[in-house]
UniProtKB/TrEMBL annotation:
InterPro entries per UniProt: ATPase_AAA_core, P-loop_NTPase, RecF-like
Keywords from the named record: DNA damage, SOS response
Official protein name in the record: Putative ATPase
Gene3D superfamilies: P-loop containing nucleotide triphosphate hydrolases
Region forming the signal peptide: none
Sequence segments annotated as region (Disordered): 358-380
Pro residues: compositionally biased ranges: 371-380
Biased composition (Basic and acidic residues): 358-369
GO molecular function: ATP binding; ATP hydrolysis activity
Family matches, as PANTHER family: DNA REPLICATION AND REPAIR PROTEIN RECF, SLR1056 PROTEIN
Start and end residues of each ATPase AAA-type core domain: 23-338
GO biological process, one term: DNA synthesis involved in DNA repair
Length: 380
């Protein structure tokens, strides 16, 4: 399980080190940095598939993503750092400004806004220490701890936009483990429920243990939970939200899956196109949270959006059920949902973010670095 996540110099996150529990709830006022934290976690997850540099470039490069306060700008030493630590291992990556390069002779490079990876480290245990280092990258040079404890230097230097997690995972089981851990992280953010939402359309279905990020395969995902997942938990979640109701999945003459919700008092079940936004969103969260293939970390951004207040307690129970099988982080605007998750019997870890007078995101109640989890960044 992850115990700590750390971010430095990303948007309003000048320096943020957060404790994580099995179920962590992040809340705070508008503009306090919740969305920045969510995006930073997505960037960190992208490192496992080699997509972090590209994701930063799509944000406009480091000039757009970097902390824009007093230390913003292109001065030496400015960097964007992301990392996590857990009971077994930790990982940190440091992105910096690129060194201007040219393409082929006479061809100027158009990629000089791409950030470069300046430093990467993988270590054993929850805290970076020299003795705990397993893989260490400084610029293009990488060294990996050998079987007998000594260092082995990779024979070929890495390009500045390639992560050692992708390029050298075959040389180290620890690199492979961290890469696969990051690749397993799953994110859901504002899944559509409007009239043209993909989840409302009938689609050909196959076994779907993981709901798509746009919810297009909702019917197939729910049927998969019913057949190979925790169908009892699904039935209880639906009944808790809509007493006496049950999900039905049918197949039309073209083999497309149809989602229906049978409710007491109605002569026929309602199809996906007829469901309210809140009802459809709750069913989407049911499919995502009761996945038969739980990730190592599941992150939800504002799951309460468009839900009636009466659905917050069932949603809290659904989130707590999911947290028994996967580590869960919930970013929410709703004080009611945060209160339901942190009260008995769920006892989630609560993190409240706020902005200080310098525009930096901080954790409410902290008086200084001694109040945060121990964390050490690798030096350049």
């Amino acid at each position: 399980m992850l115990t700590t996540v750390a971010v430095e110099n990303y948007r309003s996150l000048r320096r943020l080190v957060l404790p994580l529990g099995a179920l962590t709830v992040v809340t705070g006022a508008n503009g306090s940095g919740k969305s920045s934290l969510y995006k930073a976690l997505r960037l960190l997850g992208e490192a496992g598939s080699g997509g972090a540099v590209g994701a930063l470039a799509r944000e406009g490069g480091l000039p757009s993503a970097l902390w824009a306060g007093e230390r913003g700008g292109r001065e030496a030493g400015v960097s964007l750092k992301l990392g996590f630590a857990g009971d077994e291992c930790g990982y940190a990556v440091d992105f910096g400004y690129p060194i201007a390069t040219a393409g082929a002779p006479g061809v100027p490079s158009l990629f000089n806004l791409d950030p470069e990876i300046k430093r990467e480290c993988v270590w054993h245990g929850p805290l970076l220490r020299p003795a705990a280092l397993l893989s260490d990258r400084a610029g293009p040079r990488v060294k990996v701890r050998g079987e007998r404890g000594g260092w082995e230097t990779a024979p070929k230097g890495l390009r500045p936009y390639d992560s050692m997690l992708g390029e050298l995972a075959g040389r180290s089981p620890e690199l492979t483990r961290v890469r696969e851990l990051l690749r397993s992280w799953r994110f859901y953010d504002q899944v559509r429920t409007d009239a043209d939402a993909p989840a409302r359309a009938a689609r050909v279905g196959t076994r779907t243990p993981v709901l798509a990020s746009d919810g297009a395969d909702l019917a197939a995902a729910l049927q998969t939970v019913r057949e190979i997942g925790d169908h009892e938990a699904l039935g209880e979640a639906v009944d808790a939200a809509f007493p006496g109701s049950a999900v039905e999945i049918g197949v039309d003459e073209d083999g497309r899956f149809l989602l229906r919700l049978r409710q007491p008092g109605l002569r026929r079940p309602l199809g996906a196109a007829e469901l309210s936004d809140g009802t459809l969103r709750y069913l989407l969260w049911s499919a995502a949270l009761l996945t038969p293939r739980p990730p190592d970390l599941l992150v939800l951004n504002e799951p309460e959006s468009s839900l009636h207040p009466s659905l917050l307690a069932p949603l809290a129970s659904l989130l707590a059920t999911a947290a028994r099988r996967t580590q869960l982080l919930v970013v929410t605007h709703s004080p009611a949902l945060a209160e339901a998750l942190t009260a008995r019997p769920h006892h989630a870890t609560l993190v409240e973010l706020l902005k200080n007078e310098n525009g930096e995101t901080e954790v409410a109640g902290r008086e200084g670095p001694l109040d945060e989890p121990p964390w050490q960044w690798p030096k350049r």
